[in-house]
Request: fold
Amino acid sequence: MRKTCAFVAAMLVSLGAQAAGFALGSPDVNARRSIANKYVFNGFGCDGENISPALVWMSPPRQTRSFAVTVHDPDAPTGGSGWWHWLVINIPAKTIGLQQGAGDPAAKKLPEGAVQIRTDFGTPGWGGPCPPVGDRPHRYVFTVYALGVEKLDVPADASAALVGYMINANDIATASFTAHYGRKK
Reply:
C-alpha cells in the first residue's frame, strides 16, 4: 500500500497543470523521451522486453462506472487503420491506474473484472512499439476513457474496431498523452 501511495503522489506531481481535470500519466513513459526498450515489442525484428508501462489517472467524472484503456499507433503503415497495441475494458470505476506489467495476461495484474482485448498482434495483452526500420518515430497514443456503463458487452474475440466503437458510444470523458518510438536498425 505504501508503494501505491508513493506512486500516486509521484504521478500527481508529474501531471501538474492537468490536475484540475481528468488526466492520464505514466511513471514509465514520457512524451519528451523515446519509449524505453523495456516496453518495446519482442518480435518482428524488435528485441524489447514487451512489458506494459504503468499508467495512472485522476479526476474522472463522478458518473464514471468503468474505464477502458487503449494504446494506438496512428502512424503504422496499415493503409489508414493504424495499429492497436493494447485494449483493456471493464476496468472498475474505483481503479486509479494499471501497474507495470499488467498487460501480460499470465501475470494476473489487472483489476478484477478487467478484460484485455485482442490487439493487432493477434492476441490479448500488451504489444509494445515495433515500427518499421527507418520510419520516422511513430506516435503511441495512450488513452483512458471514463465510461458511463459498468461493462462493455462485447464478444471475447471482439475486434479492436468493435471495441473502439463501443468505447466511443459509452465515453463520458477522455484523457490521453502521446509518446514516441522509432528504430534505425
